[in-house]
Amino acid sequence: MSFQSFLLGQYAKWKLKDVPASQRELFTKLVEKNPELFKKIGEEIERRKKGGESETKAALEVMKKYRAELAPLLMQP
After folding, report:
1. In 3-state terms, what secondary structure has residue 20?
2. Could you give the C-alpha distances from 21 to 56, 73, 77, in angstroms and in order?
3. 74 or 6, which is more confident?
4. Same structural domain, 41 and 69
5. d(CA 28, CA 34)
6. Same domain flag for 25 and 42
7. Contact 35, 73 (CB under 8 A)
8. Is the same domain home to 18 and 41?
9. Residue 11 above 60 pLDDT?
10. Which domain holds residue 3?
11. In the predicted model, what is the mean pLDDT of the chain?
């Protein structure tokens, strides 16, 4: 396990503490596959939140926007 993977895992445990461990693990693997995409997604969600949108609405809208890039990541083993 690389140091980056370790840090990502710890961050996921902290940020997603109410999410089941299996889903946290899936999310961590997705981020490892394309960290730049998730960085863009996170930055865009933060911009929308600062603009007054709720976190949930911002996340849903941004995920819809990046659906085409996310779908292949979910299909990879």
Report:
1. coil
2. 21, 19, 18
3. 74
4. yes
5. 10
6. no
7. no
8. no
9. yes
10. 1-33
11. 85
What are the structure tokens assigned to 39, written together?
A: 């960085």
pLDDT tens string 41-69: 989 999 999 999 998 999 999 999 999 99
Residues 6+ apart with CB under 8 A from 31: 8, 12, 38
Distance CA 62, CA 6 (A): 26
* Both structure tokens of 48: 């929308």
Q: Read off the tokens for 23.
A: 């889903």
Dmax over CA atoms of the chain, in Å, equals 38
- Is 29 in the same domain as 39? no
Q: Which two tokens stand for residue 10?
A: 């710890």
Tell me if residue 1 falls in helix, strand or coil: coil
Q: Name the amino acid, one letter, at 58.
A: A
Residue 24 tokens, joined: 């946290």
40: tokens are 């863009």
User: Residue 60, Cβ neighbours under 10 Å: how many?
Assistant: 13
